[in-house]
Amino acid sequence: TYANLVGYTSNSSTVTLFVSRSSMPITAEMVDRVEQIQRDMTFPGMHVDIRHGKCHDVNAFYSPVTQTIMVCDETIEAYPMLVPAFVAHEMGHAMIDQLDLPITGSEEVAADEISIIYLARSGHLDDVWAAAVAYKEMTAPYHHYHYVPQDDHPELNNRAWTFACMATGAEDASVVPCYQKYQRALRNWTRLVVQHYREQDEQ
């Protein structure tokens, strides 16, 4: 089903997805998933709005200035299965920004880890696997993918492997390297978020 305007309010944030043409595959189910991700990942003290629009690229991004996530129409049209992972990834950026979570490496890798942990812990490993498959598919020759070293995003083959490995580790302890990778990320990000609120309480 399609809607001309679907709006939800969650905490202090609003998800508004405007369907400008019927060919865009924004379903009520997709909006429900976006709203759920936003609600679950909006910690106390955070405010995040989610919009969509034309970007001329398969992308999504978070603006710390406006505290808004923009999901590109091109992503929704070409890779609707990526929308949950993209939104969770950008919510990871919002958490790092608004909770002032410390990172020492790539923020893109950090946001990927946060998104994978959230999706796995919320029972949506299928979204992690969908992202792994989509990232791998994007490297196919007909996409003319070219990695730019200056890009803070991981190279797509590496990104696909990380998503697949952490998804495996989240549900299968017998795959030891992936299990350890997932558990380490889960443990460390949990510590950082808990420490943030401990510091807030002490102020």
| Side-by-side strand order of the widest sheet | 3-5-4
Average of per-residue pLDDT values: 86
Separation of the first and last Cα atoms: 49 Å
How many strand segments?
Answer: 5
Please bin the fraction of helical residues: 40-55%
Structural Rg: 17 Å
Structure overview:
With 203 residues, this protein is α+β, with helices and mostly antiparallel strands. Strands 3-5-4 form a 3-stranded mixed β-sheet. The chain has 7 helices and 5 strands; from the N terminus they run E-E-H-E-E-E-H-H-H-H-H-H. The chain starts with a strand and ends with a helix. 53% of the residues lie in helices and 13% in strands. It has helices at residues 28-41, 73-78, 83-98, 107-121, 125-137, 156-171, 176-202, and strands spanning 5-10, 13-18, 49-53, 60-63, 68-72. Helix 1 (28-41) packs parallel to helix 3 (83-98) and helix 6 (156-171) packs across helix 7.
Concise structural overview:
This protein is an alpha+beta fold and 203 residues long. It has 7 helices and 5 strands.
Q: SSE layout and pairings?
A:
Blueprint: E1 5-10, E2 13-18, H1 28-41, E3 49-53, E4 60-63, E5 68-72, H2 73-78, H3 83-98, H4 107-121, H5 125-137, H6 156-171, H7 176-202
Parallel strand pairs: 3-5
Antiparallel strand pairs: 1-2, 4-5
Helix pairs in contact: 1-3, 3-4, 4-5, 4-6, 5-6, 6-7
